[in-house]
Amino acid sequence: MKDIIRELYEVETRGNYTSSQIEQGIHDYEVRKFSLKELEHITGNFSEKLGQDGFSAVYKGKFEYGEVIAVKRFDKRLRKPEQQFEKVVNIVKLEHKNIVRLTGYCYEPTKVPVLNDKNPDMYILQDVIENLLCYDFFPNGSLERILDDKSCELDWQTRHKIIRGICEGLHHLHVGCQDAPIVHEGIKPTNILLDDGMVPKLGDFCTSMAVTPRGYIAPEVMGTGEATIRSNIYSLGVLIIEIATGDRCPSDESSGRSYIENALKSWKQGSYVASKYPSLQAGFVQQVECWINIGLNCVEILPERRPTIGQIMHFLDTESTNPECYEYVEFSLSAGSSITAWSSSEMGDHANELDALESMLCDASVEPTKLSYTLLKLVTRNFYRLIGHGGFGAVYLGVLPKGKVAVKKLSILQDLSNTAFMDEILCLKKARHSNVVRLLGYCAVAEGQLMEANGTHVMAERTEMLLCFEYVPNGDLQNYIKEECRGHEWQVRYQIIKGICHGLHYLHKQRISHLDLKPGNVLLDANMEPKITDFGLSRFLAEGKSIIVTKQAFGTRGSIAPELINSGEISFKSDIYGLGVIITKLLTRDNNYDFDNWHKSLEVGCSQEKMCVELARRCVEYDQHKRPTIDEIIRELNEMENTIQEEEPPIIQ
């Protein structure tokens, strides 16, 4: 009986961290130890709550002589409170203007009444640990309050000051600590406090990842649950984008990625910053654009492609010593160990290679050639201007003295990357058509890269794979359908359909099956002429062979043919299905149409549009054998145009 009673009273083992050990760890620092009774008195028995998360609440406390502090009280039911106080020893060492100062603590065993599981009418006393932390109080509250308050319009100079302070604080955590880098487990607006001068302070180092909104958590952490230096950079990137744009990041993971995609899209359009800050001078507009670009680099899916905090601080130093740097230099952080300004003398070292690349832009008969990594790094300004991102990699703008190019950096797993790289080169070398994007050159180079492994850093070899294409200025068809299609007449949309059909007809004649034909893989040039791109999934079909079978289905949901999903069958008819989806979206002017009933509610005008409705329905037949071939489609388009010409009345002079 005594054993049972003892079990009811005893709390589970909570660890080995005792109050005396905590005091031993912080005895060299000016941190006051409070009793629970003292903190109850200072806070008015915890009456004024400033904030709360899943495992703690923060209260306002005031001493009799007037000083105000913030008191964080952890949930008494928290398992292993010693883990939180293990972090206290690290926090107390952090002396930096952009880090919240710990001023006191309480770690006190106590007893609380809890219901008896065996007898619900009876309470028992349970041993718990009251653990509290005391910090400086900041009347401006958190960054979240400022960002949410629409009446509090921050100018760019203040926003820039906040961004800079957060970066400096994080740099101190990652680089400035003597023993080892400190990883913050909850970089989010609620954990950034602002003093009277709007100087930001990183706080709440005891945050659990469980209460951090998923929009701020790096994708790789979702699986491991463990924050790293690289995942801190991801969270920093989301914060930078939020502060620079004023648009809030949603809390869930999927909406968080959509938020980033929307930020990328707005940044690419170029007009967003000017509309957000209409009174800014040109140099400051470039500064805002540059910081949004830095934020976008920080939220790269692959952790190793994110900049380090050291690289970001290098940029801040450059910015401070030369405020006019935006007028003549572009910056990148995702590739390379420093931010580089390219001089005319460096350009001269690659003059011959540059001339050859420029001549290819003017002469479509020149074969794609091997290009050096240095040249591609040079023309993209160290991969600065991100203009697109897909499943196989990021695309950057390259600027030549007499033209522009698009440089695609593959960023998928190494074994898949090799295959996709070679497949795309082989397909594009064969494809020479006005409705297929033109490959100018390619590059594969092994580079040493510092990576984390088993708690340490090692130098690993990574192969950088790049493709250089002609630059197509009007973006992709997906964006056109979403944003611009409603303002264009049917003839513009028909010319796009016709151009895609001609491009696909050419590819099939070359025995190339694209296998990822969708609006996002069709680019539009200055004349709205479509160009098929992204051949990373493409396959060659040998002469006399109409179907091959793969073990794994691939492609984009909504555009992938049913037989590829069901049985792994690849054929030219797989592309016809994707073509049908594109035609349907151009007809409905909608990326989210009703697949089964779209044709019933569609209002069509001319006979040409009606024929395209029927063509789209046949292209997306579930049975691939019922779909037309591209030869049949081209023939039907020609016959349709001839019929329309014959029906047109003669022009009377």
Q: Could you say which overall geometry the principal axes of the C-alpha atoms support? A: elongated
Number of helices: 23
Overall strand count = 20
Overall mean pLDDT: 78
Query: What is the level 1 CATH name of the largest domain?
Result: Mainly Alpha
Helix content: 40-55%
Enzyme class: transferase
Domain Protein kinase: 44-329, 381-644
Protein name: non-specific serine/threonine protein kinase
Binding site for ATP: 409
What's the arrangement of secondary structure elements?
Blueprint: H1 2-9, H2 19-26, E1 32-33, H3 36-42, E2 49-52, E3 56-62, E4 68-74, H4 81-91, E5 102-115, E6 123-136, H5 143-148, H6 156-176, E7 192-194, E8 200-202, H7 219-224, H8 229-245, H9 253-269, H10 272-276, H11 282-298, H12 309-321, H13 344-349, H14 351-362, E9 369-370, H15 373-379, E10 386-390, E11 393-400, E12 403-410, H16 414-430, E13 439-453, E14 456-470, H17 477-484, H18 490-509, E15 512-513, E16 522-524, E17 530-532, E18 539-540, E19 547-549, H19 562-567, E20 569-571, H20 572-588, H21 598-601, H22 607-619, H23 630-647
Parallel strand pairs: 1-5, 9-13
Antiparallel strand pairs: 2-3, 3-4, 4-6, 5-6, 7-8, 10-11, 11-12, 12-14, 13-14, 15-18, 16-17, 19-20
Task: Name the descriptors.
kinase; Phosphorylase Kinase, domain 1; 20 strands; disordered C terminus; 6-stranded mixed beta sheet; 23 helices; alpha+beta; 653 residues; Transferase(Phosphotransferase), domain 1
Can you tell me about this structure?
With about 650 residues, the protein is α+β, with helices and mostly antiparallel strands. The chain has four domains: about 1-135, 2-Layer Sandwich (Phosphorylase Kinase, domain 1); about 140-335, Transferase(Phosphotransferase) domain 1 (Transferase(Phosphotransferase), domain 1); about 340-470, Phosphorylase Kinase, domain 1; about 475-645, Transferase(Phosphotransferase) domain 1 (Transferase(Phosphotransferase), domain 1), CATH 1.10.510. It is built from 23 helices and 20 strands. Strands 1-5-6-4-3-2 form a six-stranded mixed beta sheet, sandwiched between helices. It has a six-stranded mixed beta sheet with strand order 9-13-14-12-11-10, sandwiched between helices. It has a two-stranded antiparallel sheet with strand order 7-8. The longest helix has 21 residues, at about 155-175. Keywords: ATP-binding, Kinase, Nucleotide-binding, Serine/threonine-protein kinase, Transferase. Its EC number is 2.7.11.1. GO terms for molecular function: ATP binding; protein serine/threonine kinase activity. InterPro entries: Kinase-like_dom_sf (IPR011009), Prot_kinase_dom (IPR000719), Protein_kinase_ATP_BS (IPR017441), Ser/Thr_kinase_AS (IPR008271).
